[in-house]
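HOLO CASE FILE
Compound: guanosine-5'-monophosphate
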Amino acid sequence: MMNKGLLIVISGPSGCGKGTVLSEILKDDKFFYSISATTRNPRPGEIDGVNYHFLTKDKFEELIANDGMLEYASYCDNYYGTPRKPVEDMLNEGKHVILEIEVQGAMKIKEKCPEAKFIFILPPSLQELKRRLNKRGTESAEVIGKRLNEAVGEIEQSYKYDYALVNGELSLAVDDLLAIIRAEELNLKNSNNIINEVLKNA
Ligand code: 5GP
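Model generated. C-alpha cells follow.
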C-alpha cells in the first residue's frame, strides 16, 4: 500500500524569504503547495488561484461556516485560511502537502493533525529582515511596521516547532529543508512500506 504524504507546515516572519526557499523545493512534483484563501488585496503580479484564492470577507466567512477550512487565522487585519479538501485529497494520493502559514494557524494544525511536521524559517537577524521587507517594496511603511512587530512575536514562538532553519544563503536553506523532509520520509512512523517490501518474499 502506498504511504500517505507528509503534512509539512512552514512558518516564518514576513520577509524571511520562505517563498523563495519553497519555490526551489516545489520544482519536484512529489510536493503539493496548498493555495490559501485570503481577504487581503493581491500584490502586483499575484494571480487569483495561483498565489492565493482572493476572497471577500463574506465568502471567506461562508467557507468557515461550512467547515471548508482546515484552519484559518486573522493576521494584520485580514483572514488567511487553508481550504480543507485539496489537502486531504493530495495526502491520500501520497503527495507531501506544504502549508505556508503563520503561527496561529500552525498551532491549530498541531491540535487537529498531530502527525504533521512543523518547520520554522528564521531570518539571519531582525536588521536583515527589515532590510528584506523594505527591499521587496510591495507594502506601505505602515504595513511593514506591523509585519515587523508581528515578526518578533512569531520568532518567540518558533520553539513550538519541530525544526528551525536560518535562511541566510538560499542554497543552504534549501539543502536544510530537503534534509529535514528526507529524514521524515525515512522515519519508520511514516514509511513501513520499505520494510514490508524487503520481507515480501521471506
Ligand atoms: P502574506 O500577506 O505576506 O502573503 O502572508 C502573511 C502571512 O500569512 C504569512 O505568514 C503567511 O505564511 C500567512 N498565511 C498564508 N496563508 C495562510 C493560511 O492559509 N493560513 C494561515 N493561518 N496563515 C497563512
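CASE NOTES: The longest helix spans residues 170-186. DSSP finds eight helices and nine strands in the chain.
CLOSED: yes
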